[in-house]
Design goal:
The complex is a heterotrimer of chains A (227), B (243) and C (198). With 227 residues, chain A is mainly α. Chain A contains ten helices and no strands. Chain A has one domain. In chain C, the strands form two sheets. Chain C has a five-stranded parallel sheet with strand order 5-6-7-3-8, with helices on both faces. The chains are: A mainly alpha (227), B mainly alpha (243), C alpha/beta (198).
Chain lengths: 227, 243, 198
């Protein structure tokens, strides 16, 4: 890596955040989507608080997963269309690391915000408040995994015409472990048991993903640019 | 060894190899399937717990085993395509995905058929079946990605990356679904019970597994040969082979 | 010839199932200025992308050379929501100096003085292309690959761009570009793709 790599990555991160913050609706939109879909569940399942409380961990996590799918579709799309992705691939710095910076910035503005806003949604579903810190932690770690998986699928589908549905098709099977561990952690906490083993598993998935996913993402981006 | 692999990468060589392999594989697989089916479905003794309805495992288990192995074969073909740029590996991947998906589907349907008399429901969300369903989704994803690209070479590379990512994930998925199931159904009973399988049922099962592997190889070779015939029909070597 | 900037040997180019070019060979040495000529659809853009290393599918043959490449293709390579100055400071190609004064000077050279803080999406297509070309005054890359740099640029701009290309070649860099318009560059080498058409 060249000596100015550190500066380049910092600049890249700042650029991503600057562009994202210039269009706040792109950041707030998914949160509103999350809120609206959560609202559908009491309407569909009935307002009985005990039923909602029992189902709350699963509902929150499934809707978080869907939100992350919606948002992942946009990860590389704009860069592909305006030519910035080409320039990134041509840069002398490793594409895997540049891609990782993109995914991390994306996660900061989607998953982390979701984790921070989740107590409000948990209250809507009558989830016991002792589970809320675990909910936030599991969502923070889990959305990192989901962003990484979504980025792998996005890198493969960015050049395709109707890549949006295909991205969901490719991502969903891979996200099942994250869903299982996340809901288990929140449910254990809601019942008063110790969720730390499930959180540790989520952390392991996130760590493994951070190490391995960037290479897949870089490969996918190169393939998409060649097509 | 590399010379063999590289030779297999050339379409004319592979066409001749496929013809030969199909010629002797077809009778062997047919015989093995017939013998295995008769043995398992008619000759083997009924199970003391489930009676005759257990016999579906002679189709279900081989299909499930080969479907899972097939994904790894597909990922290996993908690796060969990306790393060593072997052209036939692309064809192999395109041939493997639908066969694997079909086998997974057979495993799911037979599992469901098994579930009805045993548990009373057409679909039971146990760990094994759920993992199989996710495997089917992984196969379908590879097939869908392959169709979506206009450029066939790019499609093959993308599917290779996807199947490699899936390979890393499959053990994680299977394990996590196991834990999910034990979390929700602590008093679970596994499909093939803890007790050891009696030899009278084990041997036909093993025979059927081998037969299914052969059937899998046969189907894949047939599909690869067909694709060679369609894409290379204008080339001189193929015309001289056919005449 | 270890310091060749770009070496192509017997490149065959395919697009989809059609073979466009056969046996293209090219060596760009420091100081060379090459113009790529060819009719529309002859594969100019595909070959340019292959030279940059963006495309390896459908390209057979040997491609080697320096990694220090600046590529300007048909897409602007700029973020529409950022201003000219911000785009040039944080450019994705990673080889651009980020000094604010140099950036302002470069923008002035391409005739965009006063537009430094204008957001890209408010500029015309021609102005956006000129922002991309401003990189030529900022980059330290040795090899420039420019796909149709002279489109949507007026006569004055063309003269300034030609001067910069000449300066780059004179200082040991190399340039390969495509253009539909006649250029006034001395010592221009020509790569005619119609010769290599399959």
């Amino acid at each position: 890596m060249l000596p100015e790599a550190g500066a380049f990555l910092r600049y890249q991160g700042r650029r991503h955040l600057q562009v994202a913050l210039r269009r706040p609706s792109d950041i707030v939109g998914p949160l509103i989507f999350f809120l609206m879909v959560i609202t559908l569940f009491p309407i569909g399942l009935g307002p009985d608080p005990t039923v909602l409380a029992a189902l709350a961990p699963g509902i929150l996590w499934v809707v978080a997963l869907l939100s992350s799918l919606v948002v992942s579709g946009r990860l590389f799309q704009a860069d592909f269309e305006d030519g910035t992705l080409e320039q990134l691939v041509l840069s002398p710095h490793p594409l895997a690391i540049s891609a990782m910076v993109e995914v991390l910035c994306h996660w900061l503005l989607s998953g982390v915000l979701l984790a921070l806003a989740s107590p409000a949604f948990a209250v809507l579903l009558n989830m016991p408040s002792r589970a809320i810190p675990v909910l936030m932690t599991s969502l923070a770690l889990g959305t990192l995994c989901l962003s990484l998986i979504g980025a792998v699928a996005a890198s493969l589908t960015v050049a395709l015409r109707r890549g949006g549905v295909l991205l969901s098709l490719l991502s969903i099977p891979l996200t099942v472990p994250v869903l299982i561990f996340g809901t288990a952690a929140v449910r254990e906490a809601a019942l008063g048991y110790d969720p730390s083993s499930w959180l540790a598993l989520l952390g392991a998935l996130a760590a493994g993903g951070c190490v391995l996913a960037p290479f897949a993402i870089a490969a996918g981006l190169r393939i998409s640019l060649e097509a | 060894m590399w010379s063999i692999v590289h030779k297999m990468g050339s379409p004319p060589w592979f066409y001749r190899f496929a013809n030969g392999a199909i010629a002797w594989l077809l009778p062997i697989v047919l015989v093995a399937l017939v013998v295995g089916c008769v043995w398992g479905l008619l000759v083997a003794p009924p199970d003391y717990r489930q009676g005759n309805s257990y016999r579906i495992i002679f189709i279900h288990v081989p299909a499930a085993v080969v479907a899972l192995a097939g994904y790894y074969v597909m990922a290996t073909a993908g690796l060969m395509s990306i790393v060593w740029k072997i052209k036939m590996a692309d064809t192999a991947m395109r041939a493997l995905a639908p066969v694997g998906a079909a086998l997974t589907f057979v495993a799911l349907v037979t599992g469901s058929i098994w579930g009805k008399p045993t548990w009373g429901a057409w679909w039971v969300w146990d760990a094994r079946i759920t993992s199989m369903l996710i495997l089917l989704f992984l196969y379908l994803g590879v097939m869908a990605l392959s169709e979506a690209f206009d450029n066939k070479a790019a499609a093959a590379k993308a599917c290779a990356v996807l199947s490699l990512v899936g390979t890393v994930n499959i053990p994680i998925i299977y394990k996590s679904v196991d834990w999910w199931y034990s979390l929700h159904q602590p008093a679970s009973i596994k499909f093939t019970g803890e007790s050891a399988i009696d030899a009278s049922m084990l041997y036909p099962l093993l025979l059927m597994i081998v037969a299914f592997y052969g059937l899998f190889a046969l189907c894949v070779l047939l599909r690869m040969r067909t694709e060679l015939l369609t894409t290379h029909r204008q080339t001189s070597w193929l015309r001289s082979e056919l005449s | 010839m270890a310091d060749d900037l770009l070496r192509l040997e017997s490149i065959d180019l395919e697009r989809g199932v059609r073979r466009l070019l056969t046996g293209v060979s090219l060596t760009v040495r420091p100081g060379d200025c090459w113009q790529m000529l060819g009719s529309n659809g002859s594969g100019k853009t595909s070959l340019m992308r292959a030279m940059a290393g963006l495309t390896r599918l459908g390209v057979q043959g040997y491609r080697g050379g320096t990694d220090s490449v600046l590529y300007q293709g048909h897409l602007p390579g700029l973020k529409p929501l950022l201003s000219c100055r911000e785009n040039l400071r944080w450019h994705g190609s990673g080889r651009v100096t980020c000094d604010g004064q140099k950036i302002d000077a470069a923008l002035a050279r391409v005739g965009l003085e006063g537009y430094e803080d204008t957001v890209i999406c408010q500029l015309s297509a021609g102005q956006q292309r000129r922002v991309g070309l401003a990189r030529l005054w900022l980059s330290e890359a040795l090899l420039w690959l420019l796909d149709e740099p002279f489109t949507a640029i007026d006569v004055d701009g063309t003269a300034i761009l030609e001067a910069q290309i000449q300066h780059h070649c004179a200082t040991g860099g190399g340039v390969v570009f495509t253009s539909h318009q006649p250029t006034h560059l001395p010592e221009l080498k020509v790569l005619d793709l119609d010769k290599y058409a399959a």
